Amino acid sequence: MPHFISLADIPAAELRAILDDAHAMKAARKGQSKGSLDSNAALRGETLAMIFEKASTRTRFSFEQGMRQLGGTSIVAGANDMQLGRGESVADTARVLSRFVDAVMIRSNAHSTITDFAQHADVPIINGLSDHNHPCQIMADLMTLEERGVTLKDAKLAWIGDGNNVLASFVNAAPAFGFELRISSPEGYRLEENPKTKGLIEAAQNKEAIIHDGLSPDEAAAGADALITDCWVSMGDTDKAERLAALGPYQIDAARLSKANKDALFLHCLPAYRGQEMTADVLEGPQSVVWDEAENRLHAQKAVVKWCLGK
Length: 311
Ligand code: CP
Ligand code: NVA
What we know:
alpha/beta, Rossmann fold, 2 domains, five-stranded parallel beta sheet, 9 strands, binds phosphoric acid mono(formamide)ester, binds norvaline
């Protein structure tokens, strides 16, 4: 069953094909109105269910509109509106939804909810963000870099900030796409210090990924082709004050961006908190590609759903 749960589990050639399809679909519908059908509406008759245990703007709207553009339909529910929220098991929910829909996207608190669901479902499961990773986001990010002319296998990408779920998916993607990943996170907030993500960097390095961890923010930025960050307080994090204090020196401001290559890009999955992980001038500046990055969630995820359904 082609689940889309972790980029570490999907062969490089298939990830490449998903990105190629995303680029092609985006190009093919240039100038069309946003709700109109793609000329190749490949998901006619298919339904995607989406379950959200946490808030979402981009993931929800992009998957819904993507299914519409492909001629399919979607059904969205908050977990608390389902019997899941009253104690029905993940396994039973997976077996029942498999009788109604063709694929299920889940945004969960615990990653194990998604893997449990996949174990008991007869249809493909897509990870729409968990406490471990966020694979759909990274497909959109890589697509954005490519459309700005970055060749991934030669690229130096710098992550400066919290060692979180989004970073984990960059680490998982590194062996498949061949970019160099430089990581700068404060003590206490490094990917390797989090029991949920410990070992991911080594696993990627064992597949020949070039990953430098434990860098200072300016070491990571020097000569990079892109600076990437995310909010300092993710959904579910409870230690806000400690995080803001520890992450303060990791802010991406104009001076730090100027340490990167001249035309380096700034990426952020959004939502962004100006004055925390980056200054407003960086987010709104000419090197920022965050709005294209958000749009590309739509195109990349259409390709992901098609891949899951063999279309
Ligand atoms: N970047 C992202 O996943 O956004 P949402 O939380 O709004 O879906
Ligand atoms: N790291 C963030 C990403 C939000 C899209 C979170 O998990 O809240």
